[in-house]
Amino acid sequence: MAYQNLIFEKRNQIGYLTLNRPSKLNALSKELMAELAQAFDAIEADDEVRVVILTGAGRAFSAGFNIAPQEGEPELYERSADSWRSDLKQNIETFLKIWHSGKPYIAAINGYALAGACELAQLCDIKIASEQAVLGEPEIRFGTGPPVLVTPFSVGFAKAKELLLTGEMISAQEAERLGMINRVVAHDQLMKECERTARKLIKISRVGVKFNKAAINRAYENMGFLNSIYQNLDLVVMFDTTRTQEQEAFNQIRKEKGLRAALDWRDALFKEDD
Question: Do residues 233 and 248 share a domain?
Answer without folding.
Answer: no
